[in-house]
Amino acid sequence: MVGIVVTHSTRYSQIKIPPEEIDLQPIRAQGSGGQNVNKVSTAIHLRFDIHASSLPEVWKEKLLIYPDQRISSDGVIVIKAQTHNSQEKNRADALERLRQLILEATKVQKKRKATRPTRSSQTRRLDSKKKHSQTKAGRGKVDY
Fold this sequence. Notes:
Elements (H helix, E strand, L loop, with lengths): L3 E4 L6 E4 L4 E6 L15 E7 L7 H9 L10 E6 L5 H19 L13 H19 L7
Antiparallel strand pairs: 1-2, 3-4, 4-5
């Protein structure tokens, strides 16, 4: 069995998740498929416990607060892969989806640089407001 390697651009350049931490269970796939679907377990049910994993603590915290329905309240990632007809392809798909989820959750967001509006944009905005105000003021009651 093969674990996965998560390559990240942060100071942890590569993190290897050993196969013992990933629980892969073959299950029967849902949906159509004829008689074979009732006999062969081609789908894969992946379970990954975040708390018991060897991931860095920073990544664990980010994963636990990441808003994804595949992460349970107990801190277990559950992925069901059943798109392919072979168990090997579904296993590879489930591992890749786990890798992508970890990468997405632990991505470092760029800090926003505060910018100031230019003087010309401020004058344009104020001129527009003045014009709009005059237009509305012209709609009032007329006194003769």
